[in-house]
Amino acid sequence: MLWKLVKNDLRHQPLQTFNIAFFIFLAVTFLATASQLTVHLTNSINQLVTSAKTPHILQMHTGDLNRKRLEEFVEKHQEISDYQVLNFLNIDNAELSINGHSLKDSVYDNGFSVQSPRFDFLQDLDGQLIEAEPGQVYVPIFYYISKQMKLGDRLTIGDRALEVVGFVRDSQMNSSLSVSRRFVISQEDYDALEQMGSVEYLIEFRLHDLADSSKIETAYNQAGLEADGPPLLTYTLFQLINAFSDGMTILALIVISLLIILIALFSIRLTLLAKLEEDYRELSILKAIGIPLRNIQRLFLSKYLVVAGLASSLGFLASFGVKQPLLVNMKIFFGESQATIWTYLLALAISLLVFSIIAFSMGRLAKQLKYLSLNPDQIQEREVLSPRFGSLPHILQLALADLWARKKIYTTMLSVFVLSLFVVLLPMSIYSTISHPSFINYLGLGNYDIRVDLSQISGKEKEVEQLISELETDPLIQKISVYRSYMLDYKTETGNKQKLWVDTGNQKDFSIKYIKGHAPTTDDQISLSKLRADDMEKKVGDQIPMLINGQEKNITISGIYSDLTNGGKTAKASFPVEHQEAVWIIIPITLKTETSSQDFIKAYQDRYTFAKFSDIESYRNQIFGSTIQMVSTISWWAFAGAIFLVLLITSLFIRMLFIKDLSQIALLKAIGFSNKQIQLQYVITSSLILILSLVIGNFFALTVGDSLASLLLSTIGIAGVTFIHNPLLTLLLIPLSILTASLLATRVAISDLHHFNISQLIKEDN
């Protein structure tokens, strides 16, 4: 019986049935896909860090190394199951070229390593441990994804050429957010190249229990062991960085899926309200002849529940196909991840949840059937008295009267349009913000043209000072500052010593965005990154006992900022540090307007090869470019999807109302209204609804949307973002495109009006 009802609906009302099925299918497909991708991503990363035996704690160090002291430290701490010290040979990018093209413009620290002996294994794309032969090199996977290198290419280091025979899957340095890249070569080639670069040590620890990580970090810092490099990096941080790009895709899918579920609910409400109005007389007759209300509700809803069940089932099955293209990138970075029983169970649970929400919503609508009556005043919502619009043109009066008479249906249609617009504006808002040059301020970087990085500067003090002196007197430079980074001691509340990465210098010269407070302006102030402040459980106004120039001082926290550099756990201060060698030096430069960044960099890079000169735009694109591209793709797909939704919803529901209004159209024709005038009424109605939805949608996008986008970015340590909206997109291109789509759909939906004559319309009504 139910199947017969469904078949009849498909035959006589295909548009309404398709509308309900389509949105349920879409919602289930996207949400089930997102759930499966979440399981795959989690499993893939866990599989990679397990097979590679990723270190639980890593300290990068440049300079002398006391191995005996490290061994004594390990012996004292039974929590450590294993440790090793690896060599990472940093070679200036100017010495590297691929097929004759120099890598001097790369912002990454490209270094060379041999396979790890105990853990932190480097794997190829098949998940096998790399064993490079002499003359061979395995290239970081980043260069494979960005298509900068391919198999068979020749990588030249100085006068030594190596053949690219594979790519490195590195559990530490896979992500584009990591500024270091490990090339894997043979021990023979490493020995030959060692004199060309400087060695950075990777001091790595594996623990029996990961829960002891904080304890060992504290003990390491208290022991005063080697720490001439970025702050200690942890297993959890490696997992977070690895999940960043794919995680953002999954988050976007989840948000869009939830919005589509809301659209589906509103669309179903719109369809059922219209259907209820259409079938009101027949359903009232059934009640009048004694058929129980429960049976009437079941009769009205059952066919839609069957359609919802079929659509949910198809959406569940479709999710297994939709996820495949999205798994390609994940497979390259993390390896093959086999689907587990939890993959299917979670997707099934999500599908059942969506179906349950839809069924619950339908059930609430069906409760309106208890008011069924043969009283003519209650048969149709259209017969409710509407306000008078006597001073307006007749067609506009008809359109406004129709809006008022069927306000429930049109309010639901309005809600669908608002949500469709929201689906577009949310990713567009994120894209406009992260692609704007000022967004770099939320990454811990100021606004400038060129960034000069000086690392591993021990023994090069004279050359460094010569470079700084020349830059400070260069007439092409409009503004310059020098920031020196130190690892300074501070005391915790328990009196233990910990290390803190502090960038010192005039923090007002190239200011960054602050979530709370402001940049330090005096010698007794310091600002902390959000991740560092959370780690230390500190807020603005708190004090930190710090050891500066041999003296303990209470330094007040003046502000908290977002940062993704150096693991995101940094600090900034303006006090001078004496009698201590800087770990890193950063020199931001603003050039005079007429000066070319590339020409300026070329003039200095050739003479100061130990320094890394980066155009800030290139720096931003190389570090964050893949994420920007991903969000851009999502934004334009969302835009195309919204246009499709508007076309579909408008055409379906205007057509549905048009067919239902045939008797009234006959009356309008009989009293002298032309086809064009009647068509214009529908165009005005849909246009008014859409224009109102554009206003409301933009309002919510600027308020709720910005809050939601800010919440998404805060999950990766970027907080307090002021979103930038492109008015050309949000106020012109998107509204105009959606309005055009709506008008086109309306015209198509009622295009056959001229085929109906008055006698046909009256006959069909009878």
TrEMBL record:
<feature type="transmembrane region" description="Helical">
    <location>
        <begin position="636"/>
        <end position="659"/>
    </location>
</feature>
<feature type="domain" description="ABC3 transporter permease C-terminal">
    <location>
        <begin position="254"/>
        <end position="363"/>
    </location>
</feature>
<feature type="transmembrane region" description="Helical">
    <location>
        <begin position="341"/>
        <end position="360"/>
    </location>
</feature>
<feature type="transmembrane region" description="Helical">
    <location>
        <begin position="250"/>
        <end position="272"/>
    </location>
</feature>
<keyword id="KW-1133">Transmembrane helix</keyword>
<keyword id="KW-0812">Transmembrane</keyword>
<keyword id="KW-0472">Membrane</keyword>
<feature type="transmembrane region" description="Helical">
    <location>
        <begin position="304"/>
        <end position="321"/>
    </location>
</feature>
<dbReference type="InterPro" id="IPR003838">
    <property type="entry name" value="ABC3_permease_C"/>
</dbReference>
<dbReference type="GO" id="GO:0005886">
    <property type="term" value="C:plasma membrane"/>
</dbReference>
<dbReference type="InterPro" id="IPR038766">
    <property type="entry name" value="Membrane_comp_ABC_pdt"/>
</dbReference>
<feature type="transmembrane region" description="Helical">
    <location>
        <begin position="680"/>
        <end position="701"/>
    </location>
</feature>
<feature type="transmembrane region" description="Helical">
    <location>
        <begin position="409"/>
        <end position="431"/>
    </location>
</feature>
<dbReference type="Pfam" id="PF02687">
    <property type="entry name" value="FtsX"/>
</dbReference>
<protein>
    <submittedName>
        <fullName>ABC transporter permease</fullName>
    </submittedName>
</protein>
<feature type="transmembrane region" description="Helical">
    <location>
        <begin position="20"/>
        <end position="39"/>
    </location>
</feature>
<keyword id="KW-1003">Cell membrane</keyword>
<feature type="domain" description="ABC3 transporter permease C-terminal">
    <location>
        <begin position="639"/>
        <end position="749"/>
    </location>
</feature>
